[in-house]
Specification:
Cytochrome Bc1 Complex, Chain A, domain 1, 7-stranded mixed β-sheet, 6-stranded mixed β-sheet, 18% strand, disordered N terminus
């Protein structure tokens, strides 16, 4: 029941294909949502405007183009994507990098906010903006207009961008996934234009194309009749429409109307089979794909059929999960799902089956087991009880979405409008979809669903492929054998038995606990109560969502209090115990009993704390608290869960040894945290020796002192109504009267200067991590200074390594703050590059840092940081997750609850002098690390 609102919203906002209501073949056509304005200008440009004030004072502006890599000529390979890059390198009104600088000064973040992407048949530009600044808002429409028609495409800028595009391909690719894809794509995309038009393009062409080809692509395809402007947010329709007409109305087409062709992928009459291997791939994965021509959804009958397909997907998924949860599954993981082919290209759907075997020797057994489940569903169908649970979940999802319809974030609507323009998919209102689900779901019978799955499997359009390690090549099947495993028949096969449990999760009646004390927390609009057992509860009602309640409970201790002898058992406790179920019920039974409920809950044990977090709504909050009580007082251990965990962990350990990035990350962790047993990953031997009963005992021990715990509830609830429930369930938690804290387990932070070079991997790709690490005195001002240092580094390192050196694509700046057991900070700079350039780019990065230290923080850079902070702060103040974290941290670290009211004052107090002093302090620490991963062929 996790993320139910989001799942339902996805169902509503991503259903395919209709423009407006009309009668067709005596079937009702799906109606267009009347709350979005859709219109066009005389030049053919389409626009969508939707007023939505969640969040307040924000709007999302998008420019969408019906052209991508499929529209390139042979000489233009990669230039659709290259053109997208050039949008940020100079336009008529914003030459060079002025666009990014201007937006950053207004609090817009490059990458996180301002961004773009290119696909086979589309190019999309994204620009979120505040709407309380009319000059900035109008400039946003001017920026979109410039992208649409006024890119400068200067020779010098094009030449500089070549290296950046090549580095993007290196960063995203040059790994095992890319190598396997290059072997598989000729099969998956055979005889289609898609195979020759991968959006990133061909490296040789990126290096050598004539700049005139780029301009030709831009002038040919960036036409108003192929473009749409999408505006969603806290802006009046008339205002948005006037800006669109002002900045796009005068644009004229540069040629006669030239519409993109539709491309597809041919059918294959016979099965295609492919086996691919790689030395860095450690899993054995079999995929079976049945291609189908997609059918546009235009009528209510089509919509109902789509819901039925989703229901079958859900029931197949539930059966697979049940097999895994029961233990001793013949596979590590598996899935069966109907959806878009390769993300929805070529007008195709597909029924996709994927099986992850335990190892190469058990691949046959794994494949047979999953195909047997498919055959079982085809032969015997589904049970009424299975469909009832799925129906309950669907109804809960849509009802939750309907309840939140005035609180849906603006960005959630955008993809619906993009797909309407690009793919002619429908725009359905939440009211209509809610009504449709509640009316039609009860008309669907299990027999209706049983007929669907038989349509998905066919002798035609089948593709089978196996991905495996090169080291297992000698024991892998040949293509014909693999095909036989997939398509073999099953003679003896029984129908699925649905293990349905009746009764209540909690049978005992709990007494009502009394309240020891209570007080009002006016500074945050909350109330604090202390129950009879000593458990502290903070209640903050909000109206940010109509029916969301979030909570977390926490206590100091964690695995730091585990005896070293049973530490391995303690470290796995929060993996195997919650997954085992509660009381007398296993995890599968619990999931079935919670069908139709909005409940998400998860106990956790970290190094220095333990707790439980979850989410619910007003209707289900009592059962959520009941489950909280059961997880903390009646946990159980399931041997099959432990066996499955061991099996998966051992496979992942093996995978890490041959994955270059995983090995490198282990090196980074050791440098940062040392060799403490409390933070080192378990070895296979340690896991084998771990006693699961000790894990259960440790889990119980960590949660048997309620007086040690603090719970925080944030959301739309009535304090008077929720308090008795808290008294009943949290007040019944046991308390031994012992107050505990964490123990310093000797995690050795980085000391001195460290340089390490690791040689592993096949590709010409170096990965670099630079780390600055030290103790610091925790305060709000110092924290803000660290955050400012991070943001300033992001800008300076990006401009130096990407724009000036053209040696990287997207360097990453990380900031980690730790308060327990001591206050530490870690600033990191990470990037990938050509192996031959690693040393020079490291030198360039350090030189740039030296310049910042010497010159100090400029007022311009500090103001950019402050603008971003203030804009994010505005959003945080109306976010339940933010308040949950804020209150939790305040109690956990004994911080002043009133500090939020001093936020702007504290931010203003960070002057350039203070910021410069702190930046110098943080970046001149003696504790620094330079870590480099090189390909193994460079090992001396």
């Amino acid at each position: 029941m996790k993320n139910i609102i989001l799942k339902a919203l996805f169902l509503i906002l991503s259903l395919p294909n209709v423009l407006e209501a009309q009668e067709t073949n005596n079937e009702k056509t799906l109606p267009l949502d009347q709350e979005v304005l859709i219109d066009s200008l005389d030049n053919g440009l389409t626009y969508y405007i939707k007023e939505n004030d969640e969040p307040n004072n924000r709007a999302y502006l998008y420019l969408v183009l019906k052209a991508g890599s499929l529209q390139e000529t042979d000489e233009q390979s990669g230039l659709a994507h290259f053109t997208e890059h050039m949008a940020f390198n100079g336009t008529e009104h914003f030459p060079k990098n002025e666009l990014i600088d201007y937006l950053q000064s207004a609090g817009v973040r490059f990458g996180a906010d301002l961004n773009a992407h290119t696909g086979f048949d589309q190019t999309v530009y994204k620009l979120p903006l505040p709407t309380d600044d009319n000059i900035l808002l109008e400039s946003g429409f001017k920026i979109l207009s410039d992208w649409s028609n006024k890119m400068l495409l200067n020779e010098e800028d094009i030449e500089s961008e070549r290296g950046i595009i090549i580095e993007e391909e290196r960063q995203r690719g040059k790994n095992v996934n890319e190598r396997l894809s290059k072997q598989l794509l000729p099969v998956l995309l055979e005889d289609s234009r898609f195979l020759e038009r991968i959006p990133i393009g061909k490296t040789e062409n990126i290096k050598n194309f004539k700049t005139s080809q780029l301009r030709d692509f831009y002038n040919t395809w960036y036409q108003p009749y192929l473009q749409a402007v999408v505006v969603v947010g806290d802006i009046e329709t008339d205002q948005a429409e006037s800006y669109i007409k002002k900045y796009f109305g005068e644009i004229r087409s540069k040629n006669l109307r030239n519409y993109p062709k539709d491309y597809t992928i041919p059918n294959n009459q016979n099965s295609k089979v492919k086996i691919v291997t790689d030395p860095e791939f450690s899993y054995n994965v079999v995929s079976v794909v049945y291609k189908h021509r997609s059918k546009p959804l235009k009528t209510e009958a089509d919509f109902l059929q789509a819901i039925k397909r989703s229901a079958v997907n859900a029931m197949l998924g539930a059966r697979i999960r049940e097999i895994i949860q029961k233990g001793n599954a013949p596979f590590l993981n598996a899935s069966m799902k109907y959806g878009g082919y390769q993300g929805g290209i070529g007008g195709l759907d597909a029924f996709n089956i994927q099986v992850v075997a335990k190892d190469a020797s058990t691949t046959k057994k794994a494949v047979k087991a999953v195909m047997q489940e498919l055959e079982r569903a085809e032969r015997y169908g589904f049970n009424v009880t299975e469909w009832q649970r799925v129906r309950e979940n669907f109804l809960t999802s849509i009802n939750n979405t309907f309840a939140e319809k005035d609180k849906i974030p603006s960005e959630s609507y955008v993809n619906t409008y993009l797909n309407h323009f690009l793919k002619d998919e429908p725009i359905l209102s939440i009211d209509y979809t809610h009504s449709f689900y509640n009316e039609k779901l009860n008309e669907i019978s299990v027999e209706d669903l049983n007929s669907i799955i038989k349509e998905w499997v066919s002798d035609k359009n089948q593709i089978i492929f196996l991905q495996a390690s090169s080291s297992d090549a000698n024991i892998l099947p040949d293509e014909e054998t693999l095909k036989e495993w997939v398509n073999g028949e099953f003679e003896e096969l029984n129908a699925y038995t649905d293990d349905v449990i009746e009764g209540a999760l909690l049978e005992q009646k709990l007494p009502q606990s009394s309240i020891r004390s209570e007080k009002t927390l006016d500074v945050i609009g909350a109330k604090e109560i202390i129950l009879e057992n000593g458990l502290k509860v903070i209640l903050k009602p909000t109206d940010f969502k109509n029916d969301q309640i979030l909570f977390t409970g926490f206590s100091a201790g964690g695995t730091s209090l585990a005896n070293s002898e049973y530490l391995p058992a303690a470290k796995i406790a929060d993996n195997i115990i919650p997954a085992s179920g509660i009381s007398k019920f296993n995890a599968t039974q619990v999931q079935k009993m919670l069908a139709g409920k909005t409940i998400s809950i998860r106990p956790f044990i970290s190094t220095y704390s333990e707790g439980i977090s979850g989410a619910s709504n007003q209707e289900d909050i009592e059962q959520t608290l009941e489950l909280t009580y059961l997880y903390l007082t009646q946990p159980k251990f399931d041997t099959t869960v432990f066996a499955t965990f061991k099996q998966n962990y051992e496979v992942s350990l093996k995978a890490k040894t041959i994955n270059p990035i995983a090995v490198f990350q282990d090196t980074v962790t050791k440098v940062m945290q040392g060799e403490s047993s409390w933070v080192k990953p378990l070895t296979a031997k340690e896991l084998d020796e771990a006693d699961p009963q000790q894990a259960l005992s440790f889990f119980k021990d960590r949660f048997d002192d309620a007086g040690d715990f603090t719970f925080v509830f944030v959301g739309n609830f009535d304090i008077e109504k929720i308090t008795p429930l808290i008294q009943k369930y949290l007040g019944a938690l046991p308390d031994s009267g012992i107050k505990e804290s964490y123990k310093d387990v000797g995690i050795a932070a980085l000391q001195g200067e460290v340089e390490k070079k690791l040689y592993k991997g096949l590709e010409d790709k170096a990965t670099v991590v630079l780390i600055y690490h030290d103790l610091f005195k925790y305060s709000d001002l110092n924290t803000k200074a660290l955050q400012a240092t991070k943001i300033i580094l992001e800008d300076k390192i990006l401009k130096r390594l990407r724009e000036k050196e053209a040696g990287v694509y997207s360097p990453s700046i990380g900031l980690s703050l730790s308060r327990i057991p001591k206050p530490y900070y870690s600033l990191s700079i990470s990037f990938s590059c050509a192996s031959s350039r690693a040393e020079s780019l490291i030198a360039a990065a350090k030189e740039e840092i030296g310049k910042i230290i010497k010159s100090g923080v400029s007022l311009e850079d500090l103001n950019k940081f402050k603008a971003q902070e203030l804009r994010q702060h505005e959003l945080n103040l109306r976010n339940n997750n933010f308040w949950l974290s804020y209150i939790k941290n305040s109690y956990d670290y004994d911080l002043d609850l009133n500090r939020l009211k001093q936020y702007k004052k504290q931010l203003d107090s960070l002057t350039t002098i203070k910021a410069s002093k702190k930046l110098k302090e943080y970046l001149t620490t003696k504790n620094q690390a330079t870590l480099i991963l090189y390909p193994e062929n460079l090992d001396e």
